[in-house]
Amino acid sequence: MEQTNEKNIKDFEEMVKASEEAPSIEEDYIIEVDNVSLDFYTRDEKIDNLKEFFIRLIKGKADRKAVRILNNISFKVKRGESIAIIGHNGAGKSTMLKLIADIYRPTEGKVTVRGKVAPLLNLGAGFDQESSAKENVYLNGAILGYSRKEIAKKYEEIVEFAELKEHMHIPIKNFSSGMVARLGFAIAIDVKPDILLVDEILSVGDENFRNKCARKVKELRDEGVTFVIVSHNMPQVKSLCQKAVWIENSEVMAYGEVNEVCDKYIKYCNDKK
User: Fold this and answer.
1) What are phi and psi of 107, to 5 degrees?
2) I want to staple 168 with a disulfide (CB 3.0 to 4.6 A). Which of 106, 134, 152, 244 is the partner?
3) Which residues of 16-38 are buried (b: 16+ CB within 10 A; e: fewer)?
């Protein structure tokens, strides 16, 4: 009996040890998109004023029409992996990034994200136009979850990368769109998030700055930052990413190794010409 108990204890200990050593499925994937669909709503008829809206609402005629933007999308991203979302304009690529960033909530399905996200979706969109560039560095740092002390340590690096040292005390409203984009990019990449969502922003600034952005993205990728990129630049996608998701007409057309998916998309585009 004692030998049996000792064997049971030993077997249990080995089972516990094995479970501890085995990689967790949840921990292995930093992003999981599971059968996600998203509907936007429009009205069938134009309503010109608030009075007409309430009259139609009372009469039950203010019906909304659901428009499916994304339909049954599924893919997973491992920690440190880079994945591109490709497809034609209006396919739902940027909308998918906003679901990952928790800007939108899915109508159906589930998006699971494990880690701190820096969304480079619309650079400068969160800036306070009346505040200086310096004040906006601290403001955006706080939005990304960093303390004022932490941002202070990174401030000089951010300014140097953005190449805006002489302009940091000027209100953002006086910046050109290129200057705003450079500052927004510099803030997002310097705080080193777990996940970086990139929407066509590697085209900001002049050629030298674009090349610097691309080098920085590759550096962060090599350091283990997870990337989800939306881009129409296939050579850039192939250079930066390991996998790709091709979305067309709101659905996944292909998902897998980046070169294979991009080549299918390019062939599809050529065949449609």
Assistant:
1) -70, -40
2) 134
3) eeeeeeeeeeeeebbbbbeebbb
Report which secondary-structure segment, H or E, holds 74: strand 64-78
29 Cβ contact partners less than 8 Å away, ≥ 6 residues apart? 76, 77, 78, 79, 112, 114
- Token code pair at residue 115: 């880690």
CB atoms closer than 10 angstroms to residue 155: 17
As a whole number of Å, the end-to-end CA separation of the chain is 79
* Cα–Cα distance, 105 to 164 (Å, whole number): 36
What is the band of 270 on the pLDDT scale with cuts at 50, 70, 90? very high
Q: For residue 197, what are the contacts with CB-CB under 8 A and spacing of at least 6?
A: 97, 100, 101, 117, 118, 119, 120, 121, 228
Q: Does residue 37 contact residue 73 with C-beta atoms inside 8 Å? A: yes
DSSP annotation of 53: H
Under DSSP, the state recorded for 171 is B
Per residue in 158-201, pLDDT (tens digit) is: 999 999 999 999 999 999 878 888 888 888 777 778 998 888 76
Q: Select from 121, 119, 118, 102 the least CA-distant residue to 110.
A: 102
Q: What is the largest CA-CA distance in the chain?
A: 85
Q: Cα-atom radius of gyration of the chain, to the nearest Å? A: 24
Eight-state DSSP code of residue 103: S
Take residue 158 and report the two structure tokens written for it: 């951010």
Q: Give the pTM.
A: 0.73
